[in-house]
Amino acid sequence: MNYASGASGIMDETGFFFIGRIPLREQVNNFEQNRNFMVNTMGENRTRELLKKAIFSLTIGSNDILNYVQPSIPFLGHHDKVTPTTFQDFLISNLTIQLKRLHELGARKLVIVGVGPLGCIPFIRAINLLPNGKCSGEVNALIQGYNEKLKELLNRLNQEMGPEAIFVFANSYDVFVSTIANYRQFGFENADEPCCGAYFPPFVCFKSGDANTSSSALCNDRSKYVFWDAYHPTEAANLIIAKQLVDGDESSSFPINIRKLYNYNSK
Known about the structure:
Layout: H1 24-42, H2 44-53, E1 55-59, H3 62-69, H4 84-104, E2 109-113, H5 122-127, H6 137-161, E3 166-170, H7 172-181, E4 190-194, E5 225-227, H8 235-247, E6 253-254, H9 258-263
Parallel strand pairs: 1-2, 2-3, 4-5
Antiparallel strand pairs: 3-6
Helix pairs in contact: 1-2, 4-6, 7-8
């Protein structure tokens, strides 16, 4: 089942400009409601056995960081930002609460994906006026600091709750950085511009329905691009990242990869 919500984040405030987004806390609430339905349908013991075998995957945090680093929007009030270290700690604190809630509700096999190198996405490079091939070191440093704290959190949870539960850190940052740096080796032709939308605000994506016009902001072959739009990788890039996280060594997924997590028998 999928509880994800576009534009949402770890923090309740993330993406508040977008109506209807569901933050992580409410996503876990929705799972809890579904669990209650399962218990009513199949009983507590069978529900526990089912959930014990399930993989819980959380890919979250990017929107929180994008909201933190992007310029403030005028006329909507101004709030001084907390320091990067304090912001990282806020994210980790809130994530810890929800991971422990999931464990209390029966999750035993969890994979938490670290935040990728957002300093290299077209949106961040554009608003910082960075040339092709350059990433925002400031944004990536913020992310690396968060990922390090996330790894420390998961190590601690593994010590506290293992071996009956296991928390896997999926290192999407290093995997994607390697993909960008060696993009031609993976069959890509463009690692800077998005396939869909322009490389400048407002990043509008469209393709004209008129066959006689060349007016388009959509590339002809998305499989040759690392980035689909100003924010997201293409399917081709995602497949490379996913395969590494599923079958890679401890530098990609720690303490075990996702395939081993699938076969992991919690006690």
